[in-house]
């Protein structure tokens, strides 16, 4: 009951304070209280809603554009998922020799053992060898299993020239790209 007595005491003090004011002071306090209440309602309820609405109106065109892009990408992905992956040329001694020669790389030895190939090259530009390996990975799904790359032991090897022994394997599944 102490809470009830405290509220009653506060109410009595407020009524006493209000009665001690003149009519003009009561009018000013009433108008000031109403203005303070309106400012509080506006700042707590209306202003955030109006600002959020303006922000959403500004962002809506961008969101619609992003939605259209996502729908286009989803349609493209669905079309690509329905396609069969392109067939790659099976790895053979002849295809490896041909692709190396096309890049200007002269292999010393190309040996095939089942699905594995071992290639030895000497005195080739590392950048050219790397570009060939990357092309084989992308075009024929051939991956490097093992590579031993060394700088030639001649007196003054040309800059960027390497000797390499590389073991390759062709991946048959489409997900290996």
TrEMBL record:
Coiled-coil residue spans: 53-83
Keyword Transport tagged: yes
Matching InterPro entries: T2SS_GspM, T2SS_M_periplasmic_sf
Membrane topology: Single-pass membrane protein
Localization: Cell inner membrane
Residue intervals passing through the bilayer: 28-50
Record's keyword terms, sorted: Cell inner membrane, Cell membrane, Coiled coil, Membrane, Protein transport, Transmembrane, Transmembrane helix, Transport
Keyword Cell inner membrane: yes
Top-level division of the source organism's lineage: Bacteria
Family indicated by similarity: Belongs to the GSP M family.
Protein name: Type II secretion system protein M
Lineage: Bacteria, Pseudomonadati, Pseudomonadota, Betaproteobacteria, Burkholderiales
